[in-house]
Amino acid sequence: MIYFDYNATAPVMREAREAWLHVTEKLGGNPSSMHQFGTRAAIVLADAREKLAAYLGCNPNDIVWTSGATEANNMVMHHFSKKLAPTQKVFVSAIEHPCVDDSSKYYFGKRVKTIPITRDGVIDMEWLTAELAEERPGLVAVMAANNETGIIQPWQEILAMCQAYEVPFFTDAVQFIGKLPCKGLGDCDYVTGAAHKFGGPRGVGFLKIKPRSQITPLLLGGKQEGGRRAGTENTAIIAAMMAVLDVREKQISQSQHLLRKVWRDNFEAQFLRALPGATVIGHNQPRLWNTVSVLMPEGDRKSQWVIRLDKAGFAVSTGSACTTGKEEPSHVLSAMGYKSAQAQRAVRFSAGWETTEADWDALLKAVVNVHGEMQHKA
Ligand code: PLP
């Protein structure tokens, strides 16, 4: 089976397993304990914090470990719901992951102003420029890269605009971190990430907060993480996450992703030639090097594609959230102006660092075969 669903979750890397075992077996105390076991565990945490801060370009004190990005994203919305005046608005992009989208609606209701998306899948910067000139929201939330389409959002530009207006800027960088350089993300006021998208374990992530500020805890009952998140820190999975981020940052610094982008681009070019009527979403936009989000030719249904490719030995996805077994239409594609019938044809191929050129070639062959089978049946 060849795995093309890295944006959902990535296989756990050997480095993560080794780091986890090492910390569990050798450094397994509670980091809040005063004895030597505790001190050793506290050192593991402090080292991990320093490393992550160095990659992001921020102060280690601004990092809070969490159980993943869903928790971290909820923390941001919860915090601002306590902090902002009751009438103050928040601007949230139309393509956020449900854990940002739903939590912002839960905490702010009608006070959420949705930042529209262009047909190309990018934040409508004209809209944002005009709105920020008119009013100061309490928070602007725009993800760094979208999980369904891989389209990279202009977070540096948005950050500069927010800084000019002194509005806090929050970016969910879950799909960006571990694929592209972290550097610069630390300048954003709030940043979230999750290990399992880049080869670390599931159930661990972080929130980077604004320097010299506090965050209202979501979990109460302990003074861990400087009183910002109660609960004994899971030092072993935090160390595992950082062991893999080390590998990823090294691969990125050696520009290893550029070759992988070439393989992805070749796949796309051949795919478009082989399947007339298919579309690559955000084809001309800056995108993550691993993601291909497509609309299959008319008449095809995405679920059939996923099932048939699964039978052929390829794990692919429809891209949009499917947590209950019943799939909702993609809010990302509809924000881009695609009709529901078109979104029914969306399939996402998302590769990882371990994916080879031969894997892309094999996927192309399988896609062409499945397309042939479907035409034959029709
Ligand atoms: N944000 C984005 C962009 C994601 O893709 C995901 C995972 O699907 C999340 C947040 C949630 O992350 P976690 O699984 O760590 O809770």
CATH architecture of the largest domain: 3-Layer(aba) Sandwich
- CATH homologous superfamily label of the largest domain: Type I PLP-dependent aspartate aminotransferase-like (Major domain)
- The assigned structural class equals alpha/beta
Radius of gyration, in Å, reads: 21 Å
- What's the total number of strands? 12
**Which distinct ligands sit in these coordinates?**
pyridoxal-5'-phosphate
How much beta, percentage-wise? 5-15%
The topology string of helices and strands comes to EHHEHEHEHEHEEEHHHEEHEHHEH
> Helix content range of the residues, please?
40-55%
Characterization of the model:
With 378 residues, this protein is an alpha/beta fold. The chain folds into 2 domains: 2-9 and 255-377, Alpha-Beta Complex (Aspartate Aminotransferase, domain 1), CATH 3.90.1150; 14-251, Aspartate Aminotransferase, domain 2. 43% of the residues lie in helices and 12% in strands. The protein has 13 helices and 12 strands. The protein has a 7-stranded mixed sheet, with helices on both faces. Strands 9-10-12 form a 3-stranded antiparallel sheet. The chain has a two-stranded parallel ribbon with strand order 1-11. α1 (14-26) packs antiparallel against α8, α2 runs parallel beside α8 and α9 (256-274) runs parallel beside α13 (357-377). The longest helix has 21 residues, at 36-56. The chain is globular, with a radius of gyration of 21 Å. The two termini are 27 Å apart. Bound molecules: pyridoxal-5'-phosphate (PLP). Residues 68-70, 73, 97, 99, 143, 147, 172, 174-175, 194, 205 line the site of pyridoxal-5'-phosphate.
